[in-house]
Amino acid sequence: MDNPYCYTENQRYHLSIETIRRLCFELLCMFKASRPIIESAPEDEDSQPDSLINLYEQLVFPTISEKLLQLAIMFRTFDDQMNDSEKRDEYRKCMEEMDYGRDYVGILNDGESFSLREACNKILHARTVRPLFERVDQCYQKENQNLWHLTGEIELVGTHQRRAWSANIHLPPFLEVILAVVDNNAPANGAL
After folding, report:
1. CA angle at 96 for the pair 90 and 102, rounded to the nearest 5°
2. Over 80: is that where the pLDDT of 164 sits?
3. Which of 129, 142, 146, 185 is the most exposed place for a label (fewest CB within 10 A)?
4. Dihedral of CA 127/15/99/66: which sign?
5. Top-confidence residue, 51 or 189
6. What does the mean pLDDT of the chain come to?
7. How many of the other CB atoms lie within 10 Å of CB of 79?
8. Which residue has the higher pLDDT, 182 or 49?
């Protein structure tokens, strides 16, 4: 058998378009299910908290964090590969028509909007990733604890060249733009 190293020259990362789409779906589901899960908490003070709510509270942040990071890495790689492909002119035209998601996917702390690629960069380089929550006016357990659901925004904080920045990603529009870009530019076989 020949050394397979010789056959991997000029090979890129394999990207499954279905994986990108699935990550978008899973993130969307987590945010959209957040409020109904929390609102299902028993209102009776003598009731025990629901095990689904406990599971939600334990897993919501680590799961969002992992999936958001995976999606940002995969989309940035997709963007790089498309910009370096034979379809680059077609891809760039598509991105220009969508204005790269600017004014849609999020905003920087100084009020400036940013593109889809820049949003992915912020996700990748953030030192703090903080999904924003809103209180539900309902309590459970005897301690009268408040319950919180996800709002659909994620606050990111980091530094670039020793300069602090913060940004908010609006998750549903962020996912929508990623899906539009991928669906309009994906190869027929669903992989790059």
Report:
1. 145
2. yes
3. 142
4. negative
5. 51
6. 82
7. 21
8. 182
H or E element, residue 173: helix 171-185
Residues in the chain: 192
Q: What is the mean pLDDT of residues 44-48?
A: 57
Rg of the chain over all Cα atoms, to the nearest angstrom = 20
**Which structure tokens are listed for 155?**
């606050």
SS3 state of residue 9: coil
**74-85: pLDDT as tens digits:** 999 999 999 998
DSSP track, 63-99: HHHHHHHHHHHHHHHHHHHHHTSTTHHHHHHHHHHTG
Whose CA is closest to 143, among 6, 48, 33, 34?
A: 48
Q: What value, to the nearest 5°, has the Cα angle with vertex 25 and ends 139 and 79?
A: 130
The two structure tokens encoding residue 78: 């997709």
Q: What does the CA dihedral 125, 130, 132, 137 come to, rounded to 10 degrees?
A: 170
The tokens describing 129, both together, are: 């990733």
Interatomic CA distance for residues 10 and 71, integer angstroms: 24
Quick check: 31 and 152 in contact, CB under 8 A?
yes
Question: How far apart (Å, rounded) are the C-alpha atoms in residues 71 and 19?
Answer: 9
Torsion of CA 104, 109, 112, 117, to 10 degrees: -60
Residue 138 backbone zone (phi > 0: left; psi -120 to 50: alpha; other: beta): beta
